[in-house]
Amino acid sequence: MVLKAFFPTCCASADSGLLIGRWVPEQSSAVVLAVVHFPFIPIQVKELLAQVQQASQVGVAVLGTWCHRRQEPEESLGHFLEGLGAIFSHEPWLQLCRERDSKFWSCKATYQQVPTSPGAHSEDQVMLIFYDQRKVLLSQLHPPAALPDHQAGDATASACGLAAVFDTVSRSKALFRSDQFDEGLVRLSHWQSEGVEASILVELAKQASGPVCLLLACLLSFISAASTCRVFKLWPLSFIWSKLSTCEQLRHRLEQLTLIFSTQKAENPSQLMRKANMLVSVLLDVALGLALLSWLHRKDRIGQLADALVPVADRVAEELQHLLQWLMGAPAGLKMNRALDQVLGRFFLYHIHLWISYIHLMSPFIERILWHVGLSACLGLTVALSILSDIIALLTFHIYCFYVYGARLYCLKICGLSSLWRLFRGKKWNVLRQRVDSCSYDLDQLFIGTLLFTVLVFLLPTTALYYLVFTLLRLLVVTVQGLIHLLVDLINSLPLYALGLRLCRPYRLAAGVKFRVLEHEAGRPLRLLMQINPLPYNRVVHTYRLPSCGCHPKHSWGSLCRKLFFGELIYPWRQRGDKQD
Amino acid sequence: MEDELSFSDIYGGRLALQRRYYSPSCREFCLSCPRLSLRSLTSVTCTVWLAAYGLFTLCENSMILSAAIFITLLGLLGYLHFVKIDQETLLIIDSLGIQLTSSYASGKESTTFIEMGKVKDVIINEAIYMQKVIYYLCILLNDPADPHGISQVVPVFQDCLTAVTLPWRASLWCSSCLLLDGDHGICTD
């Protein structure tokens, strides 16, 4: 198998020294982590390696020598480097050498103890793979490789393939902690040997986050304790809570905040990412809500809205009245059953009359109600949108009522017609066996049944027309509410932090690696550059999508049409299965 | 070392296959698809604009003309960025893996690297396309749960479906690279 040496790009300009890294025998690859510079005392290097090995559970060893010839080649250094192999024995012993003014390196791997294959690998049998240590250390592979337990004392990582390289680099953080300003006796060269990378702001935030989280967690626990109070669980209140999407959204927001400010530390990167996504989503939501609030309170827009709302409701009721009057005449030239038409139309007209008087009773308070609703936008845009959806539901309550009446009547007729059609054919529905059996009816039964069937058939078009018109109106309202809920869901579930990370630091979320073949000269080892292949955006969204309130369309289009045809009631998507009547 | 062969694809267009041998353990196959021809570009643009002009004479609304210009531009951008593939590359590195790269006409590159441990086999698959049988090269991936199963079939040179000779040669290369250990040299063509 070809020997592969993974070499960090940051060490390419380092002075000569020893290569420190991990040897993965099953893939015959050497992962170089750092370079130790001269002068050093061998025993101290061995001590350092033992410490790192204990801290990271990675078998770090001296892999070979690194020779960077800046001046004219010195013969003595070459012999000295070869002699080092006797002190730090490793199988195979790598000898990397970079010439002055040359892009091509030479690399030799010597096996000392195996007599059957004496000497070195030929130059062709070694492959140099350069990697960016910082990016490999910070990146997170997707899907995550199964990492062995750190506590289990598993000295060798069981991750296979390239995941082993990533795992080795990410676990040897102890090695990268020392920089050139340290007083230590061993001088190392690695990605942060110029100085440990850190930010004052991040450190301050880390210090501050503990107490802030504790305080907010206490507050949130008070709120959740208050919300579980028994007064809120009495019958009419609990029913109302379950129907309002605002309550659903508030509950969801409370759960999110509790998770964000929980004092427990995130156990794995995916949990951390989830917390960060939630925090960013909440922050964005609140920012949008505050923008809405400032827009509403500028130039007295709430007053304008309140003034516009009552005329709009009036207008809707007026249009409905016109529609009903049209239906009571001869709609589209159809001849309806006059008596039933009049009864239904008058009933609905009376309902609208009731509704209009209710709205007018409410009108003095609407501005104050809207003002308070506007304040709720500081809890987030999603809360404001949920309230808007509830307001739409309340303002179109008459349409809902009409729809229910129409649907019930229509359903009754359809059921009656289907059972009478069976009677017409001399059959009946056997409830016990759940099937249609043949049955012999009396003459009276047949006569009455047929008569009823005829009556129902002739009355069906009138009912069906009312049902059709009000179902269309209801579907319009449901569509508007569904769109609002989709928007709320989008804000709730979009992993904004992960998307931002993908946009600004593409290497943090890695789908894998890609290789580029660097310039090559015959007789020299092949040089490859390993780059991080970033995760595509659709997979970022798919992997890190936050759980939403379970508001997915429950009906397929087929089942929706079936329900509409048989006159069963349909509900907005927001309703969960257990809350349906 | 580098050589170049040319083939014709199923539509009769010319394809150029470049083979580069970097070392015995690493080789690259690079397939260049035919470029976007000026004739097809002109004909599509002219069709859209003539249709828009026809609508414009009917409706007398100049919005239609500007909309047609925008649609053409956006369509061209989308076509170059997401659909039109200029070059497909197969890089085989011994004991490391297989890398598939497709470069789009706009310069976008999409890369997939398949580790050698995940490759189960390389096969030539047969498919019926319109009225003829075409052959294409596939990589079968191991299923981690089931040692005998196949989790995925990855087609190689998917967007430049080619005549039979090309996949056959590529398959030879690919499988020889997979089968031979580092101790043996890989036989050249």
TrEMBL record, chain A:
Coiled-coil ranges per UniProt: none
One BP annotation, GO: GPI anchor biosynthetic process
Bilayer-spanning residue ranges: 278-296, 343-361, 373-396, 445-469, 475-499
Record keywords, A-Z: Glycosyltransferase, Membrane, Transferase, Transmembrane, Transmembrane helix
Gene Ontology terms, MF aspect: glycosyltransferase activity
Keyword Secreted: no
Signal sequence region: none
InterPro entries: PigQ/GPI1
Tree of life domain: Eukaryota
UniProt GO cellular component terms: endoplasmic reticulum; membrane
PANTHER family referenced in this protein's UniProt entry, alphabetically: PHOSPHATIDYLINOSITOL N-ACETYLGLUCOSAMINYLTRANSFERASE SUBUNIT Q, PHOSPHATIDYLINOSITOL N-ACETYLGLUCOSAMINYLTRANSFERASE SUBUNIT Q-RELATED
Protein name per UniProt: Phosphatidylinositol N-acetylglucosaminyltransferase subunit Q
Protein species of origin: Phyllostomus discolor
Automatic annotation (TrEMBL), chain B:
Spans through the membrane: 62-82
GO molecular function annotation: glycosyltransferase activity
Pathway: Glycolipid biosynthesis; glycosylphosphatidylinositol-anchor biosynthesis
Gene Ontology BP terms: GPI anchor biosynthetic process
Record-annotated Phosphatidylinositol N-acetylglucosaminyltransferase subunit H conserved domain positions: 89-158
Pfam families associated with the record: PIG-H (PF10181)
Annotated GO CC locations: glycosylphosphatidylinositol-N-acetylglucosaminyltransferase (GPI-GnT) complex
Family, per entry: Belongs to the PIGH family.
Official protein name in the record: Phosphatidylinositol N-acetylglucosaminyltransferase subunit H isoform X1
Taxon lineage: Eukaryota, Metazoa, Chordata, Craniata, Vertebrata
